[in-house]
Amino acid sequence: MSGPVQGVRKSIDAVPYTFTFEPARTALLVIDMQNDFCAPGGFGERLGNDIAPARAIIPHIDALLGKFRMLRLPVVHTREGHLPDLSDCPPNKLERSRKGGAGIGSEGPMGRLLIRGERGHAIIPELAPLPGEWVIDKPGKGAFWRTDLDALLRSLDIQSLIVTGVTTHVCVHTTIREANDRGFDCLLVEDAAAAYDLRDHEAAVRMTVQQGGIFGFAASTNNVLHGLA
After folding, report:
1. 160: enclosing H helix or E strand
2. 217: which strand partners?
């Protein structure tokens, strides 16, 4: 199957208004669906969070992955984590994690917490990247800081991002803000993103779409799939 035709535009029923995009210049961004954030015993749960909301979005992201793969559209996964020697972990971030009860680099049931190469750092098996899909390792909340994501997207001539993952109010929203400042059109898939607390999720969605879409758009998985049909 060949990919989408350049120049063809489609639309998605979204908030605050219709999101128009060119599929050939659109990528799916799956943020931090890692064992450390989505599996029992990981970094997120050890901080005292209920990981059920993160688990609940897996089928929605899986459906979007299936559609993007079928259409041969770019898929980019991200993973937050640090080097084994913690040289890329700011001292204040390390201190806060320790005070929160889940010190970055400490031992957990899936290896050292939030450390690259450990099982906790890996993307959950249900959403594992396929050969040819990009994986961006990031040391911070945003996917653009100290990574080559911007260069990758520009090399692929990407204009629009369909954004999913965890957590909505932290890594997802930070990335949307970064992408917006770089000129990318972002659509947050509401039911394919999650925070551990529903109030945080709802606030992040609201901040994204307020003032005429100050950071981007929001829509359901079904609306995105329909727009890509």
Report:
1. strand 160-166
2. 187
Tens-digit pLDDT profile for residues 111-124: 999 999 999 999 99
- What are 171's two structure tokens? 């890594």
Q: What is the pLDDT of residues 70-91, one digit of tens each?
A: 999 999 999 999 999 999 999 9
**Catalytically annotated residue among 36, 89, 141, 171:** 171
Give the angle subtended at the CA of 77 by the CAs of 68 and 29, to the nearest 5°: 55
Query: What residues have CB less than 8 Å from 210, skipping those under 6 apart?
Result: 16
Number of H helices, E strands in the chain: 9, 10
CB atoms within 10 A of CB 183: 8
Amino acid at 204: A
Could you give the 3-state DSSP secondary structure of residue 155? helix
Domain spanning 10-228: CATH superfamily = Isochorismatase-like (3.40.50.850)
Q: Which residues pair with 219 in a beta bridge?
A: 189
| C-alpha triplet 116, 122, 128: angle, nearest 5° | 145
From 138, 141, 185, 191, active-site residue: 138
In 3-state terms, what secondary structure has residue 68? helix
Q: Is 171 a catalytic residue?
A: yes
Question: Is 89 an annotated catalytic residue?
Answer: no
Note the residue count of the chain: 229
Name the 3-class secondary structure at 115.
Answer: strand
Residues 6+ positions from 139 with CB-CB distance below 8 Å: 80, 81, 82, 83, 88, 89, 145, 146
